[in-house]
């Protein structure tokens, strides 16, 4: 089934659905839900954390599998949960290789700067590869109704989406972000399949431009205000105050904190864009067989949820991370749905090897996979 | 209920498709049979080749069969009994209620672990730093010195006599310390950036600035600084600091790998503070060794602090005490170290 390119920004889902091959009224809506509880997940996290501490981190591979099984298993739609299949040993192997690499890299960058820099460059080129294998590993190790997901994106596409397009970011002062975001979302969605049935996301970069421009203008205004205020603040201080070492540290710290605060606001505000973009992208995503995804995450309320989770996790010194994880996940899932044409009975499985966990674990270690980890259900 | 005969009722997911149906799983003498309802099929497998998933809170138990089919059943005590009779692993049901002694042990171990990790970390990094071949120290030292020479240092403008005087004191200290004279190399430089200062490089080069010598009012003050820097070289402090700083980043990454809050930011701030604490630890170690060398050569160890006080005379009480954010220990601690 194909969705015409017109069914994007500005149109309600019902309107755009009418254009598609299947009328909206024939589709059955199944909302996602999260059936787990923060208390239960807290118990799992505490137990696995303690065991990981006792075993110097080794047990965390088992803990990771249990936590992912819990989160995915309680992610339910149409009466079934998702199953995570990766084994702890695979995770552990991947993690050890990734940690080994980071050690070598850190040693090299300190003792042999030239070798270290070369490795750093290689690392940059490796990011698309890491994204690709991480997506593949996670997709192939996840199943729904005993049918595994699959991911077939290749390295060339990954390089385009995660290296070439992002290079233009600086030259366009970030205005190109919708194009980058589209390339990345389509790399993920158009290469993802459920069994042998493909997902497809059909939307234009223009659809993302509205929300992005709002965020962009907000950031520009924030930076202008903060730098103007701190500049005049510093000038006021340096005039007529002694230049003894230590005396001027106070205002500089204030300015640093102001910048830090502005950075936090900017970081948080990305959440609103994320929600708006997620709605656009998922609404444009179909699954072979006439089904389509839906998302109606309210951007500003989601922003509130994200800020609350971040603050709670931080000020509880991490104790509330399990609660925040469950709270945010439930909120996102409850605003996500799949519109099913008929039933989900006739999906045919497609068996592929998931490969090692190095990419995924490396991605987690160096933070590159963070961006998409939250984006997929 | 005889579960051996009746088995447990759940859902059977066929291999290779998303279809499923109600089914019953039984286990007799090492053979697992699945009878699918609305279907006359009975599928059998050897129990040992069935993969029974470890239980996860609130989720159905899952068994996967070699052909890719799966059986799921709600987790009840009966089901639990069925699977343990089958010999499947009970999974990580570790809790205070089920294993109070084991849990207490784990909590105690978890509290002790950070201290052990800390001890192990400092010991391991020091062993690594000391075991590094001399060529590494030479190379790192040459790179660092080169950078300083290019950007911060200018040739010394001290009168020849002052330099000869300081060098004689230095040679005396080197001999008393039992350091190989070829392993250390004293240089005089002037720098408007680092003021009155002494720096020990990993390759054994010790640089003393003109400003420091001009500021001193007693020969023992220069001797104290030289002894202090010599101790840095002797104890391989710069290499140890480097290895520890690298190690701490790796350790924190490993322990806090995938946390989702500002904790990681806090942790990176923490590693900075820890690196500073390593530095203060090494400074005190160098002070203690300097105090020793000063006493052996019949000099006054407290002269080091006299000079330090003069360098930062406008510092006030801030320099007397150590703080979390200072690179060097407070004078009170340093006086204590040299005098010991």
SSE map:
The complex is a heterodimer of chains A (377) and B (340).
Chain A: H1 13-19, E1 27-31, E2 33-34, H2 38-54, H3 60-73, E3 75-77, E4 80-84, H4 88-111, H5 113-140, E5 142-144, E6 147-151, H6 155-167, H7 177-190, E7 192-194, E8 197-201, H8 205-238, H9 249-283, E9 285-287, E10 291-295, H10 299-315, H11 321-333, E11 336-341, H12 358-366, H13 370-373
Antiparallel strand pairs in A: 1-11, 2-3, 3-4, 4-5, 5-6, 6-7, 7-8, 8-9, 9-10, 10-11
Helix pairs in contact in A: 2-3, 2-11, 3-4, 4-5, 4-12, 5-6, 5-12, 6-7, 7-8, 8-9, 9-10, 10-11
Chain B: H1 3-6, E1 8-13, E2 20-28, E3 31-36, E4 42-46, E5 51-52, E6 61-64, E7 70-73, H2 77-86, H3 100-131, H4 134-151, E8 154-155, H5 160-177, E9 185-190, E10 198-200, E11 205-209, H6 210-215, H7 219-234, H8 237-255, H9 263-296, H10 303-311, H11 331-339
Parallel strand pairs in B: 9-11
Antiparallel strand pairs in B: 1-2, 1-7, 2-3, 3-4, 5-6, 6-7, 8-9, 10-11
């Amino acid at each position: 089934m194909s969705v015409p390119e017109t069914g994007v920004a500005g149109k309600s889902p019902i309107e755009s659905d009418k254009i598609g091959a299947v009328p909206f009224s024939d589709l059955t809506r199944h909302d996602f839900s999260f059936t787990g509880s923060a208390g239960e997940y807290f118990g799992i996290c505490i137990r696995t954390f303690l065991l990981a501490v006792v075993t110097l981190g080794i047990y965390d591979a088992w803990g990771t599998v249990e936590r992912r099984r819990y989160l995915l298993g309680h992610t339910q739609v149409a009466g079934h949960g998702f199953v995570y299949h990766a084994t702890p040993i695979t995770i552990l192997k991947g993690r050890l290789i990734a940690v080994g690499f980071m050690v070598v890299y850190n040693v090299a960058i300190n003792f042999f700067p030239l070798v270290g820099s070369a490795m750093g460059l290689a690392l940059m080129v490796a990011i698309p590869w890491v994204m690709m294998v991480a997506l593949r590993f996670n997709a192939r190790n996840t199943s729904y109704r005993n049918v595994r997901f699959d991911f077939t994106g290749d390295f060339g596409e990954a390089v385009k989406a995660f290296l070439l397009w992002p290079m233009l970011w600086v030259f366009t002062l970030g205005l190109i972000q919708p194009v980058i975001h589209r390339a990345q979302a389509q790399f993920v969605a158009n290469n993802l399949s459920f069994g042998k049935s493909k997902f497809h996301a059909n939307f234009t970069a223009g659809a993302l431009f509205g929300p992005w421009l709002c965020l962009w203008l907000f950031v520009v205004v924030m930076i202008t205000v903060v730098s103007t205020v701190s500049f005049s603040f510093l000038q006021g201080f340096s005039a007529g105050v002694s230049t003894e070492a230590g005396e001027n540290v106070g205002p500089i710290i204030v300015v640093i904190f102001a910048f830090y605060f502005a950075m936090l606001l900017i970081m948080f505000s990305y959440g609103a864009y994320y929600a708006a973009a997620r709605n656009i992208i998922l609404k444009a995503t179909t699954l072979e067989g006439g089904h389509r995804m839906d998302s109606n995450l309210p951007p500003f309320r989601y922003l509130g949820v994200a800020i609350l989770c971040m603050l709670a996790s931080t000020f509880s010194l991490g104790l509330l991370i399990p609660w925040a994880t469950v709270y945010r996940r439930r909120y996102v899932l409850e605003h996500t749905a799949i519109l099913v044409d008929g039933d989900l009975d006739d999906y045919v499985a497609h068996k592929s090897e998931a490969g090692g966990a190095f990419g995924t674990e490396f991605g987690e270690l160096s933070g590159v996979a963070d961006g998409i980890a939250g984006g997929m259900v | 209920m005889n579960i051996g005969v009746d088995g447990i009722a759940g859902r059977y997911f066929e291999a290779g498709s998303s279809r499923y149906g109600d089914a019953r799983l039984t286990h007799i003498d090492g053979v697992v049979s699945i009878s699918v309802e609305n279907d006359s099929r009975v599928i059998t497998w050897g129990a040992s080749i069935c993969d029974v998933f470890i239980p996860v809170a609130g989720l159905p138990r899952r068994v996967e069969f070699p052909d890719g089919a799966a059986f799921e059943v709600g987790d009840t005590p009966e089901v639990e009994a069925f699977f343990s009779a089958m010999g499947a692993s009970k999974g990580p049901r570790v809790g205070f209620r089920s294993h109070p002694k084991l849990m207490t042990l784990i909590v105690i171990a978890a509290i002790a672990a950070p201290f052990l990790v800390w001890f192990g970390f400092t010991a391991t990094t020091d062993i690594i730093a000391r075991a590094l071949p001399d060529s590494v120290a030479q190379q790192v030292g040459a790179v660092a010195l080169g950078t300083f020479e290019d950007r911060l240092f200018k040739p010394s403008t001290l009168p020849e006599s002052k330099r000869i005087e300081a060098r004689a004191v230095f040679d005396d200290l080197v001999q008393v310390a039992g350091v190989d004279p070829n392993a250390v190399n004293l240089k005089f430089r002037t720098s408007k950036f680092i003021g009155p200062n002494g720096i020990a490089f990993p390759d054994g080069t010790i640089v003393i600035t003109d400003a420091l010598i001009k500021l001193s009012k007693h020969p023992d003050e220069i001797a104290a600084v030289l002894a202090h820097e010599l101790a840095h070289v002797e104890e391989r402090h710069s290499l140890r600091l480097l290895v520890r700083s690298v190690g701490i980043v790796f350790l924190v990454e490993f322990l806090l790998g995938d946390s989702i809050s500002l904790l990681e930011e806090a942790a990176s701030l923490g590693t900075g503070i820890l690196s500073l604490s390593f530095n203060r630890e090494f400074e005190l170690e160098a002070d203690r060794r300097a105090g020793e060398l000063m006493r052996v050569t019949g000099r006054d160890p407290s002269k080091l602090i006299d000079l330090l006080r003069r360098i930062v005379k406008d510092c006030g009480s801030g320099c007397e005490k150590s703080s979390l954010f200072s690179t060097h220990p407070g004078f009170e601690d340093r006086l204590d170290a040299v005098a010991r």
